[in-house]
Amino acid sequence: MDAGVRDVRVELGERGYRVRIGPGVRRGLPGVLARLGVRRVAVVTARPPEWTPDPGVEALVIEARDGERDKTLAWVQELCRRFAAFGLTRADAVVAVGGGTTTDAAGLAAALYHRGVPVVHLPTSLLAQVDASVGGKTAVNLPEGKNLVGAYWQPAEVLCDTDYLTTLPDRERANGYGEIARCHFIGAPGLLGLPVTDQIAASVALKASIVAADERDTSRRHLLNYGHTLGHALEHATGHRVRHGEGVAIGTVFAGRLARALGRVGASRAAEHHDVVAAHGLRTRLPAGVGDDELIGYMRADKKRQGDGLAFVLDGPAGAELVPGVPEATVAAVLRAMPREEG
Ligand SMILES: NC(=O)c1ccc[n+]([C@@H]2O[C@H](COP(=O)([O-])OP(=O)(O)OC[C@H]3O[C@@H](n4cnc5c(N)ncnc54)[C@H](O)[C@@H]3O)[C@@H](O)[C@H]2O)c1
After folding, report:
1. CATH code of the domain containing 333
2. Most-buried pick from 23, 60, 123, 192 (CB within 10 A)?
């Protein structure tokens, strides 16, 4: 292994795989395909040709666009039709090069085509490297909502090339750092100031351990939703002006304050939430112009909710855990006390 390259294994028995992280690792794609015994691939790429690695085998290159607008069943159908026209078989593979929207859609096409062909992800955004490309969730959106149609389909390998991050806009970098910051509270503290390869490797190792214990999201995988209940509400309430990771960052600060209000943590641990998020260079205050009632309305629709009250993943004496039945009045009081950006 080259210096500065980290390997993390997702331990899922025969569906287990390696996540390789570091500068230039995209160039290892031919070796990965050789190891998998793959002789033909469909490369679904949202990056320009100079950033799309040569797979070293016969390839159909399909140009894709990152973004939610193409995370649709229509695009999955289009991909599958192009795979069919190329004659892709189950002995071949799909390679996805792009942000989380591209790895999600190409991953679902790989899960469905011929009832499943191997997929190798080359995530190119920080968020896709630390989160979307690892763990096997694939999905597309419906007009009725995000990620409503999907499948669990673990990749055969993930190559997180940190060189991709050199062209990433600042806003997208912050989007990824929101997910890295919340790792501090769910089992990967102390990532601040580390080289980005190590930050990604630690975040991926944390996700890998959680996914290995709960692949299908019935228990421990909820932990990954730290900061997400308010985060998702902020995304919706602002029409996605607040990006996912930015919402998770503000939601993490809020989770510290809510845990404090519920007597689960002390004042210094609550303050640590603010400090860790701020130290990652992320927004910590609620955006202007978003009403607390509106946010609570969106939080009522959260998928973790069961019965009365709202559900959050919160820190506490036994570490982070899913806390259902949080009274709306408490949530409203903590929201009221949160600092706000000026409009
Ligand atoms: N499957 C999962 O477990 C999982 C987990 C988290 C998020 N997701 C999904 O991931 C998606 C978000 O991923 P995302 O933030 O990568 O969004 P994205 O794919 O839309 O990419 C974000 C932006 O970054 C740009 N970009 C990506 N790589 C770049 C690069 N190297 N250089 C310059 N620009 C680049 C894209 O063109 C796009 O404008 C959402 O749809 C979300 O639902 C999935």
Report:
1. 1.20.1090.10
2. 123
CB 101 within 8 A of CB 66: yes
Its domain, for residue 317, covers 212-337
Atom of ligand 1 nearest to the CA of 101: 19
Does residue 232 line the site of ligand 1, with CB under 6 A?
Answer: no
- For a mutational test of ligand 1's pocket, the pick from 65, 66, 235, i.e. the residue with the most ligand atoms closer than 8 A to its C-beta, is 66
Tell me which of 168, 185, 220 is where a domain ends: 168
pTM: 0.96
> Quick one: 64 and 147 in the same domain?
yes
203 in a structural domain: no
Q: Of ligand 1's atoms, which has the minimum distance to the CA of residue 243?
A: 15
Indicate which residue's Cα is closest to atom 30 of ligand 1: 168
Contacts of residue 226, defined as CB under 8 A and 6 or more positions apart, other chains included, come to 182, 185, 186, 248, 252, 255, 313, 320
Distance from Cα 268 to the centre of ligand 1, integer Å: 34
DSSP state of 159: E
My answer on whether 55 and 151 are in the same domain is yes
Is the pLDDT reported for residue 89 higher than 90?
yes
Same domain, 146 and 295: no
Cα-to-centroid distance, 223 and ligand 1 (Å): 21
Tell me which residue has tokens 């996914």.
211
